[in-house]
Fold each of these.
Amino acid sequence: MSEVSPAWWGGIEMKGSFIVNGKKAEWSFAPDAVLLDVLRNNGHTEVHRGCGEGECGACAVILEGRLVNSCQVFAASAAGQKITTVAGIGSIHSPHPIQQAFVEAGAIQCGFCTPAMILAVFCLLQKTPNPTDDEIRKALDGNLCRCTGYVKIFEAVRLAARRMSSNE
Amino acid sequence: MNRIEWYFPETIDEAAALLARERTVPHGGGTGLVKSGLSSFSGVVDLAKLPLNYLKMEKGILEIGASQTFASVAENLSNLCPDCILVAALGSAASTPLRNRITIGGSVSFFPPWSDLIGPFSVLEGEICTEGKNSGTYDLSSWLANRPVQQGTLVTSVLLPDAADWDSCYYREVRVGFDYPAFTVSVVARKNGSKIEKVRAAVSGGLERVTRLSGIEDGLNGKDLSQLASLDVKKMGRVTFGRKPAGSAEYLSEIAAVHVERCLKSVLLGGGELR
């Protein structure tokens, strides 16, 4: 996986391949770089930096099927693995039902927490298609929102779950 | 500039040999090293390719590979042994994305003051299996008392020889759902009718990393349930704390004793307390 070569600033960098949203990418990074920085430095600015400490959840991505805080994952340990960002589940022209539900329910204000929140909901609904409020609460327990008070986020989750269950 | 090499061994022997090097540290995928940084290390041994991601229960003995995450343990045990105290403890630790990364091996290596693993591990009398420089099997007391034994050593699994068929209660003192607990209370018990066959109780987060409440255990083991009323549980359940953001030492000591009493009543007299 890794090739070690001198970087322009005199440090040592390594290279690794990542599978991001289904596409393979080869990137260079410092050995102590976290996945958040590597993703953002390589164009994936849909992954947001919030606290940098694994507490706000704004940086969450799906790594090998599991929601993780990308600020708490070394890039080196994620090399060779499948990473999904919000751009990998839908787009502005073809939104995922969860994204559509968030828009319709008014669950987005500043939008900063939204990409990671949507990925958390994506993971929840894959495992639990008809979650209870407690299950929603637990699944989103690592995603903080300072704007909405979560009420409309819960409504969006219920709406998305209904639609995805009935294939609306 | 400190040069850091990453290694990706595929066998335990290979990993153990790498860890014997100076300033080389294992990384199972958890958050401990991310928080502390890599500046004092020259080598990182990534454990992802090792055969340590397993959980099995045979003849009542639970063995958990060091690479199992908190989320995986909680999910696997909820099918295998749903009443196991570890389901409640590890299933409520930290947050969903963090539970997907925190590993058993990493947690055992760090056992931070806010650990949700140490209390249940103590009452289930778990053991830590290692390979490398100090290979062997360690009980919790000897592991905590002898930090140097961890250097150059790879935690491969934990063994919980008597993990099933307990009534249990787990409590974590937090201000909000996603919070580091100021302390945790772990109680497990087996009853036979009105007789208490065995009870074990522990409080973590105090000045001692974890405290077994041996006075309460001795006062109740083998006794009738009615004995609970005659024990001064609030006095016997007191643990010494340092001051924390959650409160003063005296406050935490008082509150912990209250929750020890509540957990004992929940387990021995019915009902449940889970938080």
Note: Residues 1-10 of chain A have pLDDT under 50 and may be disordered.
Amino acid sequence: MTALDIGPINPAIAHSQLRIAVTVSGAFTLWGKVSRPSTDGVAVLLGDTAGSGSWVYVSSSNLGIAGSGAMGSRGSIDDGIPPASCVFRIRRDVDGEVYFAWTGKAEFVPTGSAPNTLPYTFDVIGAARTEDSPGGLDVVTDAGCTIDAVRIEAGELTPAEREAIEIELFGFTL
Amino acid sequence: MLLIHQSPHVKQSRLVDAITLDDFVAVIHVAINATTKQWALHMLGNSGGEASLVLTNAGVGLAWDSDRKEVGCVAAFGNGVQMIRIERVNTEFTLVTLEGSHPMPATGDGTDGPISFDLIGGLTDSPGCRVLGAAILPGHPAAEDVARVEVGMAGYQLS
């Protein structure tokens, strides 16, 4: 089931507040398309202002997804960093294991916390609040970096279903 | 020109760079499905609280310079998807709807000075009220350019 599907996003937009927060528990697949002038840029794909600490980002050191407390974080710090402009996929299976892939890099299990199926909540695109309490944004996408598209599918998808979505969104498969 | 199509999933978008205007034409595409008789929708705003363009059930208001300067027009708006246009020439403001043109007289302390926007939509808008798109054309755009934007945005042009 599609939980969120936004794009193409005008590059003149820095960040957008969602009308209704999106929460995904258990298995899900998330795609992001970001453009950065260089791999030094930080692009925050998704975040939450309500204090769950959920956020997804690409930085100069890794692609990462994080939550608060026992959720912990997963990052590609041992597997390299995505290209400056890329499409990436973050997928969690029914057992809570997380898999990353991006343009030109096959799927791998990122470094970080133990598998879990705790919920991520997102209510903002392009920025995040990483503190475990409600409030304003404390991380925003760097100037010059843009979030071009976001898609979240709840539940476990078959490889064929993932490929069909990637062809629809980006015209190629990861 | 700035043209933003806003997903129905999005409540408010903040621009990378604020757009500061003297004379301009703004075309806003909205969807109103209000559940109350009185409703309000912030169409354009400024994160510093310096300006806001608001559509309500009773009309359109534009305030800037931290609310000291303000113009408004009383007009009844009901539910539905609709497009409106705001034009500014010097210190004269006009609201254009499908029903025609309506002057927006001053309701505050003057109508001069630049207006700066960096927000599309509002966080506190009434339920069911959404900004679907906004186009801002600085200066005095040609009528055919405005018409092209309107047709692209909503499929028709205002008079």
Note: Chain B is about 10% helix and 55% strand.
